Amino acid sequence: MKPQKKLGQNFLINKSAIKKIVDALEISDSDIIIEIGAGTGNLTQEILKRSKKVIAIEKDKSLIPLLRLKFQKNSHSLQIIEGDVREILPTLASKLKKFKVVGNIPYYLTGRLLRIFQELTNAPQLIVLTLQKEVTERLVAQPPQMNQLAVIVQLWAKPKIILQLKPKDFFPPPKVRSTVVQLKVKSSAERYNKEKELIPFIVCGFQQPRKTLLNNLSREYSKEKIKQVFEQLNLTEKTRPAEISVEMWITLFEYLNS
């Protein structure tokens, strides 16, 4: 089966890597696994060895008959859904109690998909994604190398790099390096209750990452108020957005909006 370039398809073929990805899902008997982009079913096959219920989403119409044929004996434990995960996942998640997600995600889909995960009312317990290496490195960043994506994702999940992949681990070999990241989703009790309001604040703070946080936030708040809050929080006027933690972003938001 020839992958479609327009869908960003590169099928993972390294069996050892596939097993490590499934290990990272930490599957228990009761887990429902949603697979994004089942492709030719290499990962699906390994998941089915450990999970009693798998829901495979595949956008490429030409791959659906192949998947149905390959897994015709697994119809009791595998549901194959044709379509775009961006449209399917919100509705699907609302019908499930507990679930985990796994997938090899093309670059163009990454940002939107991460936002969908964050906005789900019923969020997955655990997510394991194969992403472009540069994206994964941004996700796990810590001060003083924070970035907007890292802060927003770390509001709702704890990211951890699991595995580095080589181009030869895929067919066809991609031109970029890929990395597997595990995202342990925080419980509703652990998450900040004003997350939705906080995100525009973070975006404002990172509007010009190389500028000071004071200058960026002064678009929305008076410099005098920012300086007063900075003094209370032991931040300096030279502090840059990359230098502060997720917890400090929350504290700063609370102080400036009190």
Q: Notable features of this structure?
A:
alpha/beta; 2 domains; 258 residues; Rossmann fold; two-stranded antiparallel ribbon; Helicase, Ruva Protein, domain 3; 9 strands; seven-stranded mixed sheet
What does this protein structure show overall?
It is a single chain. It is elongated, with a radius of gyration of 20 Å. Helix 3 links the parallel strand 3 and strand 4. By secondary structure, it is of the alpha/beta class. It is 39% helix and 19% strand. It folds into 2 domains: 5-185, Vaccinia Virus protein VP39 (Rossmann fold, 3-Layer(aba) Sandwich); 195-256, Orthogonal Bundle (Helicase, Ruva Protein, domain 3). The longest helix has 13 residues, at 107-119. Mean pLDDT is 94; it is low at 1-7. The strands form 2 sheets. A 7-stranded mixed beta sheet has the order 4-3-2-5-6-9-7. The chain has a two-stranded antiparallel ribbon with strand order 1-8. It has helices at 15-24, 42-48, 64-70, 85-94, 107-119, 133-139, 148-156, 195-205, 213-217, 223-232, 246-256; strands at 11-12, 32-36, 53-58, 78-82, 100-104, 126-132, 157-165, 170-171, 178-185. The relative contact order is 0.12.
